[in-house]
Amino acid sequence: MNILHIITGLNNGGAEAVLFRLVTADKFNTHHIISLIDFGVYGEQLAAEGISVYCLSMPRGRITLNGLVRLYNLIRQIKPEIVQTWMYHADLVGGLISRLAGVQAIVWGIRNSNLDVQKTALSTRLVARLCALVSGIVPVKIISCSQVAANVHIELGYAQNKMVVIPNGYNIEQFAPNVESRNNLRRDLGVEKSEVLMGMVARWDPQKDHANFISALSLLDNMGFHSWKCLFVGPNMDASNAQLKDLLKQFGVYDRVKLLGPHSNIPVIMKALDIHVLSSSYGEAFPNVVAEAMGCGVPCVVTDVGDARMIVDDTGWCVSPGNSIALADALKEAMRELSEGDWSERSSQCRQRIAKHFSIDRMVENYTTVWGNVAISKITDKHENT
Questions:
Q1: Exposed/middle/buried for residue 144 (C-beta within 10 Å: 0-12, 13-18, 19+)
Q2: For a Cys staple, 199 with which of 5, 60, 214, 231, CB 3.0–4.6 Å?
C-alpha cells in the first residue's frame, strides 16, 4: 500500500521515534512523510533510509495558507491509499485537507493521555476538542498508543467505535543486553562494580517530575543505602540547568548524579543501567523509555501514569505519582533484590515481556492490518455508492 504520514514535526519526541521505527521496519508498504513544521531530528535519518520526506515550514502553533496549499498539492501528487496522521494538529489539519484532496481512507494517531487545564496549553486543548467534534466524520479509524490515552479521548468525545489501541513496538536486537557496552560506559563514568547505577532518560519538564526522583534518592541515603550513582539523560539535563543543579544540591545528592544531557545513543545508556526510573506525574501515554530499558534487560521502577503499569507488569515496581516515599521504598526493594536475590531472572523476564508483547514486527503487523481494513472498507463503500 501507498501510505502518507502527516505529522506536526520531526523533532526528538515519542511520536516521532515511533514513526521512524514503523516506516523503517515496514518492508511491505511504501511510505511518504509530510512534516507541517520542519525536518527536525528525524528528517535526514528518514531520507537516508530512502523515505520521501517533505517539510511545509509552517511556524510552530500557526497554520499558513501557503502551507495548506502545499499540503493539498502534495497529497494530490502522492495519491496515497491511506493517510496516517500523528498528533492533534496533524490529525485536524492533515485529516481535513486530505478529505478536500479526495482521500477518504484516513487514520488518526493519538499519543497523549492528559489534557488537564493546568498542565496542557490552551491551544492544544482547543485543537483536541475540535478533533473530538469531527472524529465521527474525518477518520475511518483512530489509533491510540495506549489504553489510558484511548479512554481519555473517548471521555472527551472522540468516536469510541473507531478507536484501536496499538502499543509501541521496539527493535529487540537494538535494545538488548551487552556486557561489553555496559562495562565500558560504567568505567568511563567512574561507576564502581559495587555501586548500583540508576538512571532516568527524560527531558527536563514538569511532567517528568525529576524533583520527585531526586527527593527519593535523598531518602535512600536516610534509609542507609549509600552505594549508588544515578544518570540523568535528556534535553536540558546538563550542568547548564541551574534549577536542576540547585535541586540536586538542596537534597544532598549532587555529587552522585551525573548529568549527561541529550544522548544520541540511548541503547548504550540503557545497557549500562541496573535500574531505570520513570518518575512522571502526568501526561504519559505509552512511555517508550520503560520498554526500551526492559528490552535491554533493565528492570524499571515507575509511577502509575499512562500505560507504565501495564508495560512493567510484574517485572518491576509501580508506585503512585508524586510520592517520593513510595518511590524510595520501591528503589530500596529493587536494590535489595539486586544484591541478595535472583536479579538475572528478573532481568530476563523484562526482556521476554518486551519481545513477546511489544516487538517492532508486531507493531508493523498491527498497523498494516488497520490500514488494510480501512482501504478495503473505502473500496467497498465506493462500489456500493456507484
A1: buried
A2: 231
pTM: 0.85
pLDDT of residue 386: 55
- Summarised one tens digit per residue, pLDDT across range 181-236 is 999 999 999 999 899 999 999 999 999 999 999 999 999 988 988 899 999 999 99
d(CA 308, CA 113): 12
Residue with cell 497529497: 75
CA–CA gap between residue 138 and residue 116 (Å, rounded): 25
- What CA–CA distance (Å, rounded) separates 186 from 79? 50
Mind spelling out the 3-state secondary structure of the chain? CEEEEEECCCCCCHHHHHHHHHHHHCCCCEEEEEECCCCCCCHHHHHHCCCEEEECCCCCCCCCHHHHHHHHHHHHHHCCCEEEEECHHHHHHHHHHHHHCCCCCEEEEECCCCCCCCCCCHHHHHHHHHHHHHCCCCCCEEEECCHHHHHHHHHHCCCHHHEEECCCCECCCCCCCCHHHHHHHHHHCCCCCCCEEEEEECCCCHHHCHHHHHHHHHHHHHCCCCCEEEEEECCCCCCCCHHHHHHHHHCCCHHHEEEEECCCCHHHHHHHCCEEEECCCCCCCCCHHHHHHHHCCCCEEEECCCCHHHHHCCCCEEECCCCHHHHHHHHHHHHHHHHHCCHHHHHHHHHHHHHHHCEHHHHHHHHHHHHHHHHHHHHHHHHHCC
Kindly list the structural domains of the chain, giving each domain's residue range(s) and its CATH number in brackets, ordered by start: 2-169+359-384 (3.40.50.2000), 179-357 (3.40.50.2000)
Buried b (16+ CB within 10 A) or exposed e, 183-220: eebbeeeebeeeebbbbbbbebeeebbbbbbbbbbbbb
